[in-house]
Structure formats: structure tokens, C-alpha cells
Design brief:
By secondary structure, this protein is of the alpha+beta class. It is built from 4 helices and 8 strands, in the order H-H-E-E-E-E-E-E-E-H-E-H. The longest helix is centred in the last third of the chain and has 14 residues.
Length: 181
């Protein structure tokens, strides 16, 4: 038998090891990997919880005044990640909230949306007003143009990559376990 080859396997050990189940890092070590992703350049941030990670993106916090009306818009997305170091899995719980109020010649209008569960979303909004104010992690911005951009993949993918590097994988649901998916 060639060196580095298991007795019952036609493949060398080096070909098998990358696919072998490895133990996930502790919750604290996995959290530290994710917290290292925080940057003032990102529009969102990650913070530790007792059981994993909480990611928050306040993607819209705007006020505007136009020729015929005014308005306020707020939007946020929260991603709660529960880590199970024994199984080496993570599970997501997502919520988003969006509220807008406007006043114009037709009166006062308001709308509020709330969603919980798995989400994939991309939103881009650019508008013009006589005066506007937008707030984000970099501060308060005033001017005539305002808008926001929001993409769930932008907050999820770095988190998934960090957790995968820490030895975690997505927790399989009932059908995933049943059919091996």
C-alpha cells in the first residue's frame, strides 16, 4: 500500500481529509470571525448574542421636502443567527420593517410593512427634493438628492463565509434531513 493511503480506501488520505467532517469552532471564536467583518465602510454591523450573532442594517432613515409635499421613510433589516457548535450548524431568523409617511395636497398618507422569515431582497431608490436629510452609519447627509440601496446578500454572504470558515454549515430543515439535501 502506498504511504498516506488508508487500508480500506482507494484514495489517499489527503484526498479524503478536506471533505471529512471537522469540528466547528466555539461560539465565541465564530463570533470573533464575524465581528472582524465590521467596518465603518459597511452600511450594517454585526454584534454577538448569547447564542450567536445579530446583524442590523438600517437602510433607510430619510426626510424630504418637495414642491408639493413632504415625507419620512425608515427601513431596517435584522438577521439573528443561532449557532449550534455541537452540530456545527447555523440557523437564520430574519425580520424587516419599512415605514413611510407623506403629506401633500391629497392629505396625509402612511404605510408600514413588517416581514419575518427567509428573505432575499434588493432595493434601489434615488429621488430628488428641494431639501432632504438622510442618516446612516457615516452620519447625517443633507441636499437635494436622497435614496438608499439594500441587498440581503450583502449582509448575509460575508457572514456565511465567516461561519463556513469556522466549520459551520446551514442547519438542514425537515425535508433536507429526510432526503439528504
Amino acid at each position: 500500500m502506498p504511504p498516506g493511503q488508508e487500508a480500506n480506501s482507494p484514495l489517499p488520505v489527503s484526498a479524503i481529509l478536506p471533505y471529512a467532517h471537522r469540528m466547528a469552532e466555539s461560539i465565541q471564536d465564530a463570533q470573533n470571525r464575524v465581528l472582524a467583518l465590521n467596518s465603518d465602510d459597511r452600511p450594517f454591523f454585526y454584534e454577538p448574542t448569547a447564542v450567536g450573532i445579530h446583524a442590523t442594517w438600517k437602510y433607510a432613515d430619510q426626510k424630504w421636502l418637495g414642491f408639493f409635499g413632504a415625507g419620512v421613510r425608515q427601513g431596517s433589516y435584522d438577521l439573528y443567527v443561532t449557532l449550534d457548535p455541537d452540530d456545527g450548524t447555523w440557523e437564520f431568523d430574519e425580520t424587516s420593517a419599512d415605514a413611510e409617511a407623506t403629506v401633500n395636497s391629497d392629505g396625509l398618507h402612511g404605510e408600514k410593512k413588517w416581514q419575518s422569515g427567509s428573505q432575499k431582497s434588493f432595493t434601489l431608490n434615488k429621488s430628488f427634493a428641494l431639501a432632504s436629510e438622510s442618516k446612516d452609519r457615516q452620519g447625517t447627509h443633507t441636499g437635494q438628492f436622497f435614496g438608499y440601496r439594500f441587498d440581503t446578500d450583502e449582509i448575509k454572504q460575508p457572514l456565511i463565509d465567516a461561519l463556513t470558515a469556522a466549520g459551520y454549515s446551514r442547519k438542514k430543515g425537515f425535508f433536507g434531513k429526510l432526503f439528504g439535501g
